[in-house]
Each structure stands twice: as C-alpha cells, then as structure tokens.
Amino acid sequence: MSQRLSSTKQSPQLTRKLFELGQMIKESGVEESLLDLVNIRVSLINGCAFCTDMHVKEAKIHGERELRVYHVPIWRESPLFTPRERAALEWAEAVTQIAGHGVSDDIYARARDQFSEKELSDLTFAVAAVNLWNRLNVSFQNPPGSADALLGLTKAGLS
Q1: Are 38 and 89 in contact (CB under 8 A)?
Q2: Which of 8, 106, 149, 154 is in Cβ range 3.0-4.6 Å of 15 for a Cys bridge?
Q3: 34-44: b or e for each residue (b if 16 or more CB lie within 10 Å)?
C-alpha cells in the first residue's frame, strides 16, 4: 500500500491553527494531568495509534504514574482516579461518542459538579481538539512515534 498524504504539508495554515488551539487549551487552566488522561482516553476510543502513543509519552514526561496510564481504559473500575478525573473521563467519552444519543443530563450534571462553567467549556474544546487530531491521524495513517523528535517526546524514554 502506498503512503498516504501529509495533512500538515498539504494544509499548513490549518495545522498551525490547530497547534495554536492546543496551546490555548494548555493555558486554559484545566490541569495538565487531567488533559493527559482525557487525551489518552479519547485517542483509545478513536483507535488513533499515533495520538495514543504521543499522549502516553506526554503523560510520562508530565510525571503521570505508569499504573494510572494503564488504568485509563478501565477507569470506571479503577480506584486510581479522583471524582474530578472520573467526571472528565466520562464527559470526554460522551462528547467523543456523541452520535445518536448526545450527552445525557446525568453526565452533564456529574461534570458540572466537578467543573466550573468555564472549565467545562475549556474541557469540551480539549475533547473536540483531540478528536480532530485523531481523525486526521487515523485518516492519513500517521505511524506512532514518527514525530517524537519534532514534538520533544524522545525524553519520555519510551522509544
């Protein structure tokens, strides 16, 4: 099979704006550790190998405990997550899998119990952004680890 196109090369201005959005999300005030967990969970749901690989490495660089990363797919059963993290993971799943059923009032209420209006809005932008990255990387089959040097992820020591 031939290699697919590079969306970053074909659409550099859009890619730059998406990176800018990512930077704004990091500066929004939502905890970096929470964003790491959400990015991993959404990328797993979407089957994005490139993004899952990248976000696991980011989480390690940011000091996340290895076992918690392993427990992201089983967060409901795991005792390792705070109520705020659970609400964020549930919200991220609902927003990612929004087709056909939307986001229930119960999930919204649990999220609002843990997040201010601004935090929940910012978190939703974060979920939407990682979903967009997932769709780009899955569509164009970007290989996991292929941008590690560019993104500074080699310092995770997970090559």
Answers
A1: yes
A2: 8
A3: bbbbbbbbbbb
Mean pLDDT by 10 residues, the chain (159 residues): 81 94 96 98 97 96 97 98 98 96 96 98 98 96 82 82
Token duo for residue 102: 């939307």
Q: How far apart are CA 13 and CA 33, in angstroms?
A: 29
- What domains are defined for the chain? 13-141 (1.20.1290.10)
pLDDT value, residue 6 = 86
Token look-up 């967990």 returns 37
Helix, strand and coil content of the chain, in percent to the nearest 5, comes to: 70, 0, 30
| Residue 51 near residue 136, CB atoms below 8 Å | no
In angstroms, the CA 53 to CA 26 distance is 19
Residue given tokens 């089957």 in the structure block = 47
